[in-house]
């Protein structure tokens, strides 16, 4: 389309719209335009008392959305909404308001989303994703949706990813107003769905009936073929799978013996089992699982009748356990019971064919060969052609079946015997009196068993198939087939190194099949040709899924690519196109720039008027949807509506979220904890400084020489601890001990007269120098403290708590606690003298000087000259020193 022709089209559109429509207000979030329009896209917002209703285009609207007119209608209590086709909104306005197209495509009869609209929802399954005709001048496509369409006059298939405001502006001139919708799917699925499913808006593949898998790539068990059809009814096992033929391999069994806990019988409608002849219930409760009385289990697993005249015989050997009345066990053959010889009362032995009536021998019945009575019920061995059954002689059919039973004649035992196990009926072909029991063949089998060569087995052997005519007989396959099913010539595998392809034997597989285990298996329906049966083993692709990507055939390339038929690959679009149909800048379906619009397949500058911009997702300007200038034939100007161009300021207070409150609480708690930790560190530091100052004032920290420091360094280096001297503490104070000695002296007063003068003891004098001062300083052991200097001087107790003085060296103040000897006490005395000497060397504080002066004055006053002084006038009167 020529660029010079565009202004003419725009003018023509303006004239048509202005003449046909009344004044309307069209809005997007942030801008409204007043003018003439016939757009039917979006929703209509109206409120009582409003100067005009608003046509809202797709987008999100909140309580802060401008302009003022739009804000007032959105927040009005009387506001109501009415949506166009494809849009779903509540009648009442609830903010934030999201106006968006439902998953699908809306087709409009006119350009720029005007005229009559029809909506086609995203298919929910493959069966609804059918071809549809669209009569559209413009198309609004929901987000995350792609659709493939074809023109009415062209078979070219194109894929659209974006809305088309004007179909005539697409690059292909063959696209008219009539389009054919071929396919539509969501782009939300992480892995593209196969042809058996469709991607839904929830991001999951919705499978067609019979398909399964995350991408709907395989058939459910019991389904076969490219459409995953169900196997035939009554088929228990078939050739299923997406590459299967559906041929029934095993039919369903009704009334199988196992359904009524039965082994060799037929389950009835009442749930009870009817046993075959010769079988009965076993001790473990299983019906028809052991041989009945009168039968024994032979080596072939059949219940065979006991010999004639034997009522009970042993399994395996058939040796008779109990013979019937009138019979005795043979001494030569343990399986046989011999009839007692018939003799007359006179002792005459009756020949075969006769019996004794007492006095003479009488002829047997014509039905008996030997007998012990006159009637046919007294036969021991029936006549030729007749066989013993339940005590009577019966005839047989031409196949050896005994009359009125399912038992077969046994010429060796002259009895009717049971059929082989698992047989319901049996016979001997061309039966004669010379026929043997091993010639018997089954003619009917228990449910679940098949008939093969006269035996009832569980499944047909290789080279045969179960005849669908009776679902009983195994029939031989055709000579060309190694195995077959359904019919003799439907080969599952072939002989002579040929390949089975759809039931026939071929030398090589067709193009849409692949060889596997001697058969040609069909490719996955997504593939045209393949290297395997999986959906990701495609070698080439069909026309409806042309894109081959990592072994998979996909319906489309990515949004920014197009499918190149020449190279059968995806190629990138021009940089100006967000989607395209071919290379170059003139094959765009939509533009990648938000400031460009599509014109004739080419992206050109939008040139929006009235300060509008290109509407996201619609591909055209807001001014293109509204004619703001009246036509020349209309003299009435546009009415003035307030609030269209003015903005509003809305102040909102946003409540805190729970996690914000939690964060603030944790932050405050952390700050408080940090303050407590810092405060504790500061207090510890101050206490350490006070302790250090106290120790320095009291000179508690003795100076260390370089030898001591070197010794302590070595101890820390090698992990040793400095030696600690343990001082020995006496049990009692020395003065208390001496007081006890004085008390003991009183008890030995009579003894004092016996002794003479003795030398002075080594114990120092009681009142030696400094003793009173030391005693006053130490105080009593009971109180552990002295009265304060204030009380000592004034005689009045302190009105405040007594100050506590720390012990300077507790070890030096404690005497020995392990010795009460004179030597131990003397060492303690020596330590006290050393301590006092060190205290004298220290410079006393003013308080100490004052206290000493007062104590010396008190000592002088308390000890006058009138006191008696001890004198040594003779020997000691201590009884312990004599």
From TrEMBL:
<feature type="compositionally biased region" description="Polar residues">
    <location>
        <begin position="778"/>
        <end position="794"/>
    </location>
</feature>
<dbReference type="Pfam" id="PF23106">
    <property type="entry name" value="EGF_Teneurin"/>
</dbReference>
<keyword id="KW-0732">Signal</keyword>
<feature type="compositionally biased region" description="Basic and acidic residues">
    <location>
        <begin position="826"/>
        <end position="843"/>
    </location>
</feature>
<feature type="region of interest" description="Disordered">
    <location>
        <begin position="744"/>
        <end position="882"/>
    </location>
</feature>
<feature type="disulfide bond">
    <location>
        <begin position="207"/>
        <end position="216"/>
    </location>
</feature>
<keyword id="KW-1015">Disulfide bond</keyword>
<keyword id="KW-0812">Transmembrane</keyword>
<feature type="signal peptide">
    <location>
        <begin position="1"/>
        <end position="19"/>
    </location>
</feature>
<dbReference type="InterPro" id="IPR006212">
    <property type="entry name" value="Furin_repeat"/>
</dbReference>
<feature type="domain" description="EGF-like">
    <location>
        <begin position="185"/>
        <end position="217"/>
    </location>
</feature>
<keyword id="KW-0472">Membrane</keyword>
<feature type="compositionally biased region" description="Basic and acidic residues">
    <location>
        <begin position="765"/>
        <end position="775"/>
    </location>
</feature>
<dbReference type="InterPro" id="IPR000742">
    <property type="entry name" value="EGF"/>
</dbReference>
<dbReference type="InterPro" id="IPR009030">
    <property type="entry name" value="Growth_fac_rcpt_cys_sf"/>
</dbReference>
<keyword id="KW-1133">Transmembrane helix</keyword>
<keyword id="KW-0245">EGF-like domain</keyword>
<feature type="transmembrane region" description="Helical">
    <location>
        <begin position="658"/>
        <end position="679"/>
    </location>
</feature>
<protein>
    <recommendedName>
        <fullName>EGF-like domain-containing protein</fullName>
    </recommendedName>
</protein>
<dbReference type="InterPro" id="IPR002049">
    <property type="entry name" value="LE_dom"/>
</dbReference>
<feature type="disulfide bond">
    <location>
        <begin position="189"/>
        <end position="199"/>
    </location>
</feature>
């Amino acid at each position: 389309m020529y660029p010079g022709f565009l202004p003419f089209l725009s003018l023509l559109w303006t004239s048509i719209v202005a003449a046909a429509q009344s004044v309307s207000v069209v809005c997007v979030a942030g801008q409204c335009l007043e003018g003439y329009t016939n757009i039917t896209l979006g929703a209509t917002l109206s409120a009582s008392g409003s100067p005009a209703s608003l046509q809202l285009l797709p987008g999100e609207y909140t309580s802060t959305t401008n302009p003022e007119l739009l804000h007032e209608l959105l927040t009005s209590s009387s506001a109501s909404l009415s949506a166009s086709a494809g849009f779903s909104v509540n009648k009442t306005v609830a903010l934030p308001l999201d106006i968006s197209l439902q998953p699908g495509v809306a087709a409009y009869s006119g350009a720029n989303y005007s005229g009559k609209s029809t909506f086609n929802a995203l298919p929910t399954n493959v069966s609804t994703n059918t071809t549809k005709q669209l009569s559209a001048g413009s198309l609004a496509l929901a987000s995350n949706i792609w659709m493939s369409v074809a023109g009415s006059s062209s078979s070219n298939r194109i894929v659209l990813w974006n809305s088309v405001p004007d179909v005539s502006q697409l690059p292909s001139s063959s696209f008219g107003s009539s389009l054919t919708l071929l396919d539509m799917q969501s782009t939300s699925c992480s892995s593209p769905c196969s042809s058996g499913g469709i991607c839904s808006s929830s991001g999951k593949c919705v499978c067609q009936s019979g398909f399964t898998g995350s991408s709907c790539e395989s058939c459910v068990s019991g389904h076969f073929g490219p459409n995953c059809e169900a196997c035939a009814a009554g088929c228990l096992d078939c050739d299923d799978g997406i590459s299967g033929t559906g041929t029934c391999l095993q039919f369903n069994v009704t009334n199988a013996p196992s359904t009524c806990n039965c082994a060799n019988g037929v389950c009835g409608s009442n749930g009870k089992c009817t046993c075959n002849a010769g079988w009965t219930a076993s001790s473990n409760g299983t019906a028809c699982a052991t041989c009945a009385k009168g039968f024994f289990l032979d080596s072939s697993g059949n219940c065979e009748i006991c010999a004639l005249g034997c009522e009970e015989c042993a399994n395996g050997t058939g040796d008779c356990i109990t013979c019937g009345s009138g019979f005795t066990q043979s001494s030569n053959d343990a399986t046989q019971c011999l009839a007692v010889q018939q003799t007359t009362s006179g002792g005459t032995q009756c020949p075969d064919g006769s019996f004794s009536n007492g006095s003479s021998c009488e002829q047997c019945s014509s039905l008996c060969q030997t007998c012990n009575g006159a009637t046919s019920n007294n036969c021991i061995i029936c006549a030729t052609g007749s066989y013993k059954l339940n005590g009577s002689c019966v005839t047989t059919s031409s196949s050896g079946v005994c009359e009125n039973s399912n038992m077969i004649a046994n010429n060796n035992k002259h009895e009717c015997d049971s059929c082989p196990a698992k047989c319901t009926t049996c016979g001997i072909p061309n039966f004669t009196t010379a026929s043997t029991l091993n010639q018997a063949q089954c003619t009917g089998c228990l449910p679940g068993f098949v008939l093969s060569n006269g035996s009832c087995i569980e499944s047909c052997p290789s080279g045969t198939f179960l005849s669908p005519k009776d679902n009983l007989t195994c029939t031989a396959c055709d000579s060309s087939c190694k195995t077959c099913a359904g019919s003799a010539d439907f080969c599952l595998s072939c002989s002579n190194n040929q390949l089975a392809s759809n039931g026939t034997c071929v030398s090589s597989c067709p193009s849409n099949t692949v060889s596997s285990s001697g058969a040609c298996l069909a490719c996955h329906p997504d593939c045209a040709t393949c290297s395997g049966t999986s959906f990701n083993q495609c070698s080439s692709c069909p026309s409806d899924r042309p894109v081959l990507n990592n072994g998979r055939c996909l319906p489309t390339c990515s949004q920014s690519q197009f499918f190149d038929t020449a190279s059968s690959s995806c190629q990138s679009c021009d940089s100006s196109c967000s989607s395209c149909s071919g290379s170059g800048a003139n094959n765009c379906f939509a533009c990648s720039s938000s400031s460009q619009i599509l014109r004739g397949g080419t992206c050109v500058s939008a040139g929006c008027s009235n300060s509008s911009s290109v509407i996201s997702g619609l591909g055209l300007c807001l001014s293109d949807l509204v004619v703001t200038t009246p036509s020349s034939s209309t003299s009435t100007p546009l009415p003035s509506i307030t609030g269209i161009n003015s903005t509003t300021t809305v102040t909102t207070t946003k409540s805190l979220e729970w996690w914000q409150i939690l964060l603030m609480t944790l932050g405050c708690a952390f700050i408080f904890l940090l303050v407590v930790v810092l405060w504790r560190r500061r207090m510890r530091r101050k206490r350490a400084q006070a302790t250090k100052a106290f120790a320095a004032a009291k000179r508690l920290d003795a100076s260390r020489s370089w030898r001591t420091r070197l010794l302590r360094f070595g101890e820390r280096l090698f992990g040793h601890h400095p030696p600690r001297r343990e001082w020995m503490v006496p049990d009692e104070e020395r003065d208390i001990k001496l007081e006890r000695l004085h008390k003991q002296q009183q008890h030995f007063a009579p003894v004092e007269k016996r002794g003479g003068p003795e030398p002075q003891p080594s114990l120092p004098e009681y009142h030696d120098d400094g003793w009173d001062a030391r005693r006053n300083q130490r105080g009593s052991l009971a109180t552990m403290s002295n009265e304060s200097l204030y009380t000592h001087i004034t005689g009045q107790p302190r009105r405040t708590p007594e100050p506590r003085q720390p012990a300077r060296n507790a070890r030096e103040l404690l005497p020995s606690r392990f010795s009460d000897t004179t030597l131990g006490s003397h060492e303690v005395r020596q330590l006290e003298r050393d301590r006092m000497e060190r205290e004298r060397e220290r410079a006393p504080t003013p308080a100490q000087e004052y206290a000493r002066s007062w104590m010396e004055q008190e000592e002088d006053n308390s000890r006058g000259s009138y006191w008696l002084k001890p004198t040594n006038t003779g020997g000691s009167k201590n009884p312990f020193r004599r």
